[in-house]
Design goal:
The protein is α+β, with helices and mostly antiparallel strands and about 250 residues long. The chain contains four helices and 16 strands. About 15% of the residues lie in helices and about 45% in strands. Strands 1, 2, 3, 4, 5, 6, 9, 10, 11, 12, 13, 14, 15 and 16 form a 14-stranded antiparallel beta sheet that branches.
Length: about 250
Amino acid sequence: MSRRCFRVIAALFGLASANALSPAPIADPAAMLSRADAPHDAFPEGVIRLRVVVKERGKEPLAILLELFVKGTDQSLCVFREGKQKGRKILTLGDRVFLIVPGASHPVPVSKTQRLMGAASFGDVARLRFADTYVATLRPGVEPVAGKDGETLCRVLDLKAVRAGSAYPLAVLWTGRDDGLARRLRLTLPSGKDAKEVFFTDYGDKQRLRTMEIHDLLAKGGENVTRLEFLNYEPRALDPTTFDPEGARAVP
C-alpha cells in the first residue's frame, strides 16, 4: 500500500472515529423535544429551592423563597416559605391544580394558567414538558439566543399543542444547536396573541436549570419580568401523601 493511500485511509478512519465520539446533533423534532426535557428527567424526585423575583412596571421588585416538591413528570407541590403568602401551597397533579390556603377547610381547584407571582403561572413552576404537550416542526437554519455566557446558536421548532383546549395552543422553542437544551420559548394564546416569552438563561451541573426569565408580553410596554432562580436541588424519596390534596396540607 502506498504511503499516500495509507494517509487517506488513516484520515478517513480518524474522521469516522471523531464522528462516533461526537455524533451529529439530533434533527428529529420529536427527539429534540425529548432532549429539551432531559434536565427534568435527570431529577425525577426530590425538593428544589428557588427564589422568584418579580419586576413590574412602576413597582418595587418583589422576591420570595419557594420550595418545590417534585415526583415524576406530572406531580409537584409548591410551598411559599416567606412573604404575605407564606404557608400557601400549590399542588399540581397532571392537568389538575389545587390551591391550599392555611386554615381553609379544603383545597381549591384552580387553573394551571393562573398566575403564581408576576408573569409566572403555576404551570411554569411545575415544570412544563415539551414532548408531552406539543408536536414540533423544525425550521431550517439556526438563530442566536442570548444567555449568561453570550449567544448560543439555536435551532427553532414551531410547536402545536397535542390536546384541544390548551391554554397555549401554539409556541416556538429555540434549543441549543450543540447541546439541545431549551434556550427560549414563546407561548401564544388561542386568540393568536403572544402571551409570554421565556428565556432559559443559565444551566449548571448535570445540565440542571439555574435561572429562567418569564416576560409578560401582554403587559404594557412588556416591562413585567419574573426571574426564577433555582438555588438548590435535593434528590430524595418523598412520601406519596405529599401529592394528595389532603395529605399535602400536612407538609410543613
